[in-house]
């Protein structure tokens, strides 16, 4: 059976079947077991055992339902570039601690380059974003500058990793 090595800094190996299983689960974690066993040429028991092992070893972190933003009234997505007053670890850590508590922040990245942090923020409207930016984000003492880009159209959205 072919072994696939994942990541540059890991010696962990997955079989080609386990890799295929992970790809299938990324597409649909609410799978039909008969379809999955047929597609992967594995028994039901083998599929369930491998899923349990992949969960226990941390390859599978969690299962979620991906909701339609518009149907739940969150029609406005903003990419927010944030500069901090200082790049000292204490300031960055304080800022990150505060934004992790903000429900509107879907993704947050510490970046190199012009801005220190990039956020993906999802809200219901431009007015809701204004309230978020002025009432919550700019109220964080470590924030020096905020630059907002409003998403006009989605080209690609995925949660599946390309491995």
TrEMBL record:
What GO molecular function annotation could you give as one example from this UniProt entry? sequence-specific DNA binding
Q: Which InterPro entries match?
A: AsnC-type_HTH_dom, Dimeric_a/b-barrel, Tscrpt_reg_AsnC-like, Tscrpt_reg_AsnC/Lrp_C, WH-like_DNA-bd_sf, WH_DNA-bd_sf
Instruction: State the name under which the record lists this protein.
Output: HTH asnC-type domain-containing protein
Task: Identify the SUPFAM superfamilies for this entry.
Answer: Dimeric alpha+beta barrel, Winged helix' DNA-binding domain
Transcription regulation found in the keyword field: yes
Which key words are in the record?
A: DNA-binding, Transcription, Transcription regulation
Gene Ontology biological process terms from the UniProt entry: response to amino acid
Q: List cellular component terms (GO).
A: cytosol
Boundaries of every HTH asnC-type domain copy: 14-75
Specify the taxonomic lineage: Bacteria, Pseudomonadati, Bacteroidota, Sphingobacteriia, Sphingobacteriales
Organism from which the protein derives:
Sphingobacterium paucimobilis HER1398
Q: Which domain of life is it from?
A: Bacteria
Q: Known Gene3D superfamilies for this protein?
A: 3.30.70.920, Winged helix-like DNA-binding domain superfamily/Winged helix DNA-binding domain
Which PROSITE patterns does this chain map to? Answer: HTH_ASNC_2
């Amino acid at each position: 059976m072919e072994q696939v090595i994942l990541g540059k800094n890991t010696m962990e190996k997955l079989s080609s079947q386990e890799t295929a299983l992970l790809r299938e689960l990324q597409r649909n974690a609410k799978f039909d077991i008969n379809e999955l066993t047929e597609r992967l040429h594995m028994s039901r028991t083998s599929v369930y055992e491998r899923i349990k092992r992949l969960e226990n070893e941390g390859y599978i972190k969690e299962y979620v339902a991906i909701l339609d933003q518009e149907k739940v009234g969150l029609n406005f997505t903003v990419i927010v570039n944030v500069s901090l007053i200082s790049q000292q670890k204490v300031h960055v850590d304080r800022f990150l601690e505060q934004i992790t508590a903000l429900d509107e922040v879907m993704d947050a990245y510490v970046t190199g380059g012009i801005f220190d942090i990039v956020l993906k923020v999802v809200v219901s409207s431009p007015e809701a974003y204004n309230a978020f930016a002025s009432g919550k984000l700019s109220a964080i003492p470590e924030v020096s500058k905020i630059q907002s880009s409003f998403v006009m159209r989605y080209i690609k959205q995925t949660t599946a990793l390309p491995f």
